[in-house]
From TrEMBL:
It comes from the Bacteria. Residues 71-85 have a biased composition (Polar residues). InterPro entries: Ferritin-like, Spore_coat_CotF-like. Residues 62-85 are annotated as: Disordered. This is Spore coat protein F. Residues 30-57 form a coiled coil. The keyword Coiled coil applies. Keywords: Capsid protein, Coiled coil, Virion. It comes from Tissierella creatinophila DSM 6911. The lineage of its organism: Bacteria, Bacillati, Bacillota, Tissierellia, Tissierellales.
């Protein structure tokens, strides 16, 4: 298995783990367990970002180009209107 494939598999697995942690956190009523899950999620997010940076640097992953500022502002305005109304 090539390094690129390994990195992409780990990134996908980490993304799934972060989603699972988030779901568990929102469904957890035990504050100690909730705090532990939040810590684990935060650590997984940090690891994911470090892997992402490495993958991008090696050319294994190419991020989408930045959105035009006008599109960002329109989306922000639409979301704010939805939350207020």
């Amino acid at each position: 298995m090539k390094e690129r494939d390994i990195v992409n598999d780990i990134l996908a697995g980490t993304k799934a783990s972060i989603g699972s942690y988030t779901t568990a956190i929102t469904e957890c009523s035990n504050q100690q367990l909730r705090s532990t899950l939040q810590t684990l999620r935060n650590e997984a997010e940090q690891m994911q970002y470090q892997l992402y940076q490495m993958a991008e640097q090696k050319g294994y992953y190419k991020a989408a180009p930045p959105a035009p500022q006008g599109d960002i502002q329109t989306t922000k305005t639409d979301l704010q209107s939805t939350l207020q109304g």
